[in-house]
Amino acid sequence: MSGCNEAVEYVYQYIDDELTTTRKARIKWHLKRCGHCMDAFTFETELKERIASGGKTEPGPELFDSLRALLQQERKNEDPDC
Ligand SMILES: [Zn+2]
Fold this sequence. Notes:
Elements lengths: L2 H7 L1 H5 L5 H13 L1 H18 L8 H17 L5
Helix pairs in contact: 1-3, 3-4
The structure holds zinc ion.
Zinc ion binds next to helix 1 and helix 4.
C-alpha cells in the first residue's frame, strides 16, 4: 500500500547502494510490480549516469519534488493498490 512512498523516498539511496539488504529487497520488489516507480527509478538512474559521465548540472531538490508530484498524480489516475 505505502510501497510507492517508500520507493520514492529511497530511490537515491537505492541507486547509490546505501540501503540495508532488507530495505533494498523491499524497494526492488516494489519496482518489479509498480511501473510508475520503475519509470522513476529508470529516470533517476539515467540522470545519475549522465551526471557521472561529465554533466555539469546538478539535480536540484526541485527535480525531486516534481518527480514526486508526478508520481502522486499518476497514482491517482491508476491502480489504487499500487
Ligand atoms: Zn510504486
